[in-house]
Design a protein that fits this description.
The protein has nine domains: 82 residues, no CATH class; 107 residues, Outer membrane lipoprotein wza fold like (Roll); 68 residues, wza like fold, CATH 3.30.1950.10; 75 residues, Outer membrane lipoprotein wza domain like (Outer membrane lipoprotein wza fold like); 87 residues, Outer membrane lipoprotein wza fold like (Roll); 85 residues, Outer membrane lipoprotein wza fold like, CATH 3.10.560; 78 residues, Roll (Outer membrane lipoprotein wza fold like); 73 residues, Roll (Outer membrane lipoprotein wza fold like), CATH 3.10.560; and more. It is built from 18 helices and 37 strands. The chain is extended and about 130 Å long. Belongs to the BexD/CtrA/VexA family. It is a multi-pass membrane protein. It is found in: Cell outer membrane.
């Protein structure tokens, strides 16, 4: 079959990367191959003359799978439909491909202009069927041989004789409708089914195969390559013309190739003509809405598909499940339209429906009840609109607050008054505030109004009950809601300090117990309670401080001081209590490690002494001191000599001292000809070290030169009357020579500066003359 030839070519395309037969390499993942690459690789593979078997064998040896072959075949089927669709003026597709996928064979199609559309401009329901590239209705050429298939010229039969002997024949039906075997006379099978043709062939073969008479031989007749037929599509179609399609093609195959009905074409009355007689009428809505393919009959050669103009286009919008434009038959009513639209949504207003209708002069609007007028007659151009129900309730009342079951209730015979509403809400809670409740009601202009109620008297029957209305809301507050929430707070040396709920009869001991008890360093002495004062006297005192001493064992026999709402309790630590604090010293000391601070006056020199002092190889000038992981510049040499007591810092928790070995090199970085590191030599000066690095570059900013000493301190170059004084040389230091940033003036700036100098010179000359 021709389709197998195309697939064979495309299998070669799939594996052409193995032999690099194309100028662009196929991706390792066949899914990454584009359609354009597919076409290019096909041409390259054909030019190399490689067979499918050769390429496939090499590809399997290189790790490709049978799944890759199946994937590329699927891509080819899609490519056939997408790239070879009927387009005006498309003359570059080869004849074999045109014949296989149904390209126009007789003449180029003519597209129908949308400007000629009658009626609605919106896309009609069903047109998306022919615009979907993933839906092709392509005939399945791998089906078993259809027993009712009618044979004709160009059909190919495959005949296998099996048994004690084997013989195979590939015969093609001639234009005269016959097939020939060896020296036997032709057998006429045109118009026969495969079963009928098989019977004739067996009878003729019995003359040369005796085993067919006694049953020792078997004959199997199957359909090979099928013939092509020509189908003409006319009428209101997007691309009318004559199409060459497979003899297995159906009406849907041909309709898809032609692009389907045009904007004026009918989806409901497509006619199949055979020998000038209408043999079938297709309603595409049966397939679109029900998935029924009973009308999708197989086509014969010279069949004509006629797509007439539509009869009625109706639009429906609003609260329906499938809104849009639908084609209706002449007798269809609103009931049919509603079924096409999928019915009403749950929010649809079904009491009345509006329809806009065209008259001979202008438009009019009609309103009908779909519940009583479901058979409402439709007219071409009608526009139905289904509205949305109102976002309001006709019988809802609400109750909020201090009841056991607050929420929404239906206004009914059981719930007409405030008291009945409370009873249906399971009654009032114990903390309900009965002296006043609020009934919120909508007035006639929908503005809210508050109606105060004495709920206690209503519940006791002392005052008349209040009748409820739609959308009433009863709000009942609790006693707790009408006062500030009562809290107490404990701060200081307890395990879980914080805010706690106040309760009557609560004492300080209760609050300490709830907070997890005293910490290890806490003291029960000098406990303070800060209490609010409530008085109208104009004085400066707003808080009362109560001092309490209690034991730390929290004995239950001693209730202690009772608390009041909003009290704050402060628990102190023992005066000399403090958790251990540690510092660290590492490097060239005799006993490096972590040490605990003994007292509050311990300093750096004390820690060095506790660590056993410095080793011989220690470089005290390079020692560094860190606090909170930040380097602090400290001159250890002066501290140890007692010359700089101010920088002998008091130790704090987390301090760290690093004392390295003696550093014997000096590093020069930045704008020198050869940035490098050189050995320290006591006789060399600062300039000598610069010379060791090749000297300064032209862009060196010498006045901003600075050094960084091993202990983290820095120093810079100083200048007085043009004489530069460089920093002191020290072992392990780093010299940094920064880059001079030159600001170049523009031409305009140079001219302006020159003009300024000339003007200044003129002014000075004038002053000299005057003096």
């Amino acid at each position: 079959m021709r389709s197998s030839k195309i697939i064979s070519k495309l299998i070669i395309v799939l594996f052409c990367s193995v032999f690099q037969i194309a100028y662009a390499q196929v991706p390792a993942n066949v899914n990454n191959l584009t359609d354009k690459q597919l076409e290019q690789f096909l041409k390259q593979a054909e030019s190399k003359g490689m067979s499918e078997a050769q390429v496939e064998a090499a590809a399997l040896a290189n790790g490709y799978t049978a799944q890759d072959i199946a994937t590329i075949r699927e891509r080819i089927n899609r490519l056939k439909t997408n790239t070879n669709e009927i387009k005006p003026g498309n003359s570059k597709v080869d004849n074999a491909t045109r014949e296989q996928v149904g390209e126009v064979a007789e003449r180029a199609p003519v597209a129908v202009s949308d400007k000629q559309e009658v009626g609605k401009k919106s896309e009609i329901f069903g047109s998306q069927l022919f615009n979907n590239k993933d839906l092709t209705f392509e005939p399945n050429l791998r089906l078993p041989t259809p027993r009712n298939y009618i044979l004709g010229p160009d059909d190919e039969l495959k005949i296998d004789i099996t048994g004690y002997a084997y013989q195979h024949y590939d015969v093609k039906i001639t234009p005269e409708g016959t097939v020939k075997f060896e020296n036997l006379s032709p057998i006429y099978i045109n118009g026969n089914t495969v079963e009928q043709a098989k019977s004739k062939i067996i009878e003729r073969l019995k003359t040369i195969f005796a085993g067919l008479k006694n049953g020792t031989l078997n004959v199997d007749v199957t359909l090979g390559n099928v013939r092509s037929i020509k189908v003409t599509i006319v009428g209101a179609v997007k691309n009318p013309g004559t199409y060459t399609v497979s003899s297995l093609a159906t009406a849907f195959n041909a309709l898809y190739l032609s692009g389907g009905p045009s904007v004026n074409g009918s989806f409901r009355n497509i006619q199949i003509l055979r020998d000038n007689v209408v043999i079938k009428k297709i309603d595409l809505y049966d397939f679109l809405l029900k998935g029924v393919l009973t009308d999708n009959l197989n086509l014969n050669d010279q069949d004509v598909i006629l797509i007439p103009l539509f009869e009625k286009k109706i639009e429906i919008d609003g609260e329906v499940r499938r809104k849009g434009v639908f084609e209706l038959k002449e007798t269809d009513t609103f009931e049919n339209l509603l079924s096409y639209a999928g019915g009403f949504t749950e929010q649809a207003y079904t009491a009345t429906i509006n329809v806009k209708r065209n008259t001979s002069k202008e438009r009019q609007i009609l309103t009908f009840d779909p519940q009583t007028s479901l058979k409402f007659q439709t007219q071409n151009g009608d526009h139905f609109f289904v509205g949305t129900i109102l976002d309001r309730f006709e019988n809802k009342v609400q109750i909020h607050g201090a009841v056991f079951r607050p929420g929404e209730f239906a206004l009914s015979d059981k719930i007409k008054t405030v008291k009945q509403l409370i009873q249906n809400a399971e009654g009032l809670r114990e903390d309900a505030y009965l002296d006043r409740a609020i009934l919120m009601r909508e007035q006639e202009n929908l503005d809210p109004i508050y109606i105060p109620l004495d709920l206690g008297k209503i519940m006791r029957g002392e005052t008349p009950d209040i009748q409820l209305k739609r959308e009433d809301q009863l709000i009942i507050k609790s006693i707790v809601e009408l006062r500030q929430e009562k809290k107490v707070e404990i701060i200081g040396a307890v395990n879980n300090p914080g805010v706690f709920q106040f309760a009557d009869n609560m004492t300080i001991r209760d609050l300490i117990l709830m907070s997890g008890g005293f910490t290890d360093g806490a003291t029960g002495k000098r406990i303070e309670v800060a209490r609010r004062l409530y008085n109208d006297e104009s004085n400066d005192k707003s808080v009362e401080i109560i001092k309490v001493d209690i034991s730390k064992n929290l004995s239950p026999t001693d209730k202690g001081v009772k608390l009041q709402p909003f009290d704050k309790v402060f628990i102190r630590n023992l005066p000399n209590y403090e958790a251990q604090q540690s510092v660290q010293i590492v490097g060239e000391v005799n006993y490096p490690g972590t040490y605990t601070i003994e007292n509050k006056v311990e300093r750096i020199v004390d820690l060095i002494a506790r660590s056993g002092g410095l080793r011989e190889e220690a470089d005290i000038n390079a020692a560094r001191f860190y606090r909170n992981n930040t380097l602090v510049s400290v001159n250890f040499s002066k501290i140890l000599k007692g010359e700089d007591l101010a920088t002998d810092l008091l130790l704090e928790n987390g301090d760290r001292i690093e004392i390295p070995k003696e550093r014997q090199i000096i590093t020069i970085n930045g704008q020198v000809l050869n940035p490098t590191s050189v050995a320290y030599q006591p006789k060399l000066t600062f300039k000598d070290y610069i010379a060791e690095a090749g000297g300064f570059t032209e862009d060196a900013f010498v006045r901003k030169l600075y050094v960084q000493y091993p202990n983290g301190s820095t120093d810079r170059t100083r200048s007085f009357l043009g004489v530069k004084s460089f920093p002191k040389v020290q072992k392990g230091m780093t010299i940094n020579v920064p880059l001079r940033t030159r600001v170049r003036m523009t031409s305009a700036e140079r001219i302006a500066m020159g003009t300024g100098f000339v003007s200044l010179s003129a002014v000075l000359l004038t002053l000299v003359r005057l003096l």
